[in-house]
Design brief:
Length: 113
């Protein structure tokens, strides 16, 4: 198996050396790789970073009394906010208060004053 791999490598190297490759071929290859990386950045990474910043700003602006939607789809009212956690009251039953992480909140609707 190793011998067949060596033969393939030698055949490939011989073809490239013997064919007289085009001088600009290396530059166009580099330009296409850079273009692919730029497209990847603008289509995938940049929107994700913008969404993370928006979510972080939303979580920083939360106040007691705001209506929140959790990542699992439950609506509740913020009762208390600590550094990393919040206490959310669900439904009209005042005894249903659940502590959860801030990261479990997907939307915040400001309380009407």
């Amino acid at each position: 198996m190793l011998a067949s791999l060596n033969m393939l490598l030698e055949a490939g190297a011989g073809d490239a050396a013997g064919s007289g490759s085009v001088p600009g071929m290396g530059i166009s290859y580099i330009i296409s790789i850079v273009a692919m990386i730029a497209i990847f950045y603008f289509l995938l990474l940049r929107p994700q970073k913008k969404e993370q910043k928006r979510l972080q700003a939303m979580l920083q602006e939360m106040e007691v009394g705001d209506v929140v939607v959790t990542t699992s789809g439950f609506y509740g009212v913020l009762i208390d906010i600590t550094e990393e956690d919040v206490i959310v009251e669900f439904g009209s039953n005042k005894n249903c208060r659940i502590p959860m992480r801030k990261s479990a909140i997907s939307q915040v609707e400001k309380a009407e004053k």
